[in-house]
Amino acid sequence: MHKVKASNLTRLIGFVLLGLVLFFVSNRVDELRVYQGASVAMYVVAISSIILLTGYSGQVSLGHGALLAVGGYGAALVRNEFNAPVWLCFAAAVLLAALWGALLGATAARLSGPYLAGTTLALAVGLPSIANQFKFLGGEQGLIFDIGLPPASLGEFFSQYKWFFWIAALTALIAMWWLQNLLRSRYGRTWRAVRSQSVAAELAGINLARSKILAFTVSAGLAGLAGALLSMSISTVSPGAFPLSLSFALATGAVLSGVTTLGGVIIGAVTLVAIPEVADTLTQSIGASENVIANLPGLMVSGLLIVAVLFVPNGPVEQLKHRQKR
């Protein structure tokens, strides 16, 4: 018991120290890097939701971008209709996406493998058409999600992008700390048992359907939080902000991070943020056409996914651990 408490305290201190480092770094980099930092925080939460779902409970989702959209729309509606504070908008995003996840999880409990992946993929494909059917969702133009200017007490030189970064970084740190504790609890152990030995887990008295639904619900809640962070950083939420390519990018980020561990989640997040900049640099250096410029980031994501599956299927962190054990 004392060891567990010491471990929890150590992780909490680690997250606090990381937060302090991010605070100081944000004051010494330019606006572009600050904005990219907010995007990294969003991807950390989004990729973590996939790692929980796939790596811990064994369920595959290829349409997680749809759950991000649910969270983004939920946050924007609460903000626009009730002028709620940003933290309440994020809470609404989590709850609404978790509700969708519970409904989808009830279906997922009856499916497995490619059938589940196909179901989530169909949801992501049909998202734009669904959103356009409801006027209160803003149609193709979507909704504005304006969290307002940073507090005046932070100074006149405190930029909007830095405000986005602080909110996103703090949210990601809290979410990751909570998720790590959850995965180390009996729920995490149950999900791992269901993933690795479902028959043995059922014989041990574990309700497989209930366990899968709970995993899908928690994963969807985290995805909804990531969707709210994304909508905040671009100040809008629309079908075009959550394309199918986003779902594939998140799946790639999870593979790059290591689907079975949270230890490398920052690797996948930083990679996804860096890809557009790398692609832009390459296209400018070779003078590529507009068609190449538009498609190169997606091509790079696909290539990275193939390379990761071939050479580091468990992610670089797990690969390093296996080498150290050997």
From TrEMBL:
**Stretches that traverse the bilayer:** 12-29, 35-53, 84-106, 113-131, 163-183, 213-234, 246-272, 292-312
Instruction: Name a single GO cellular component.
Output: plasma membrane
Report the subcellular localization: Cell membrane
The answer on whether this UniProt entry bears the keyword Amino-acid biosynthesis reads no
Name the predominant localization: membrane
- Keyword terms, alphabetized: Cell membrane, Membrane, Transmembrane, Transmembrane helix
State the organism of origin. Answer: freshwater metagenome
The protein, known as: Unannotated protein
- Do you know which InterPro entries this protein is assigned to? ABC_transp_permease (IPR001851), LivM-like (IPR043428)
- Asked whether the keyword Ion transport is assigned, the reply is no
Question: Which GO terms fall under molecular function for this chain's record?
Answer: branched-chain amino acid transmembrane transporter activity
**What topology does the record note for this protein and the membrane?**
Multi-pass membrane protein
Entry-linked PANTHER family: HIGH-AFFINITY BRANCHED-CHAIN AMINO ACID TRANSPORT SYSTEM PERMEASE (PTHR30482), HIGH-AFFINITY BRANCHED-CHAIN AMINO ACID TRANSPORT SYSTEM PERMEASE PROTEIN LIVM (PTHR30482:SF20)
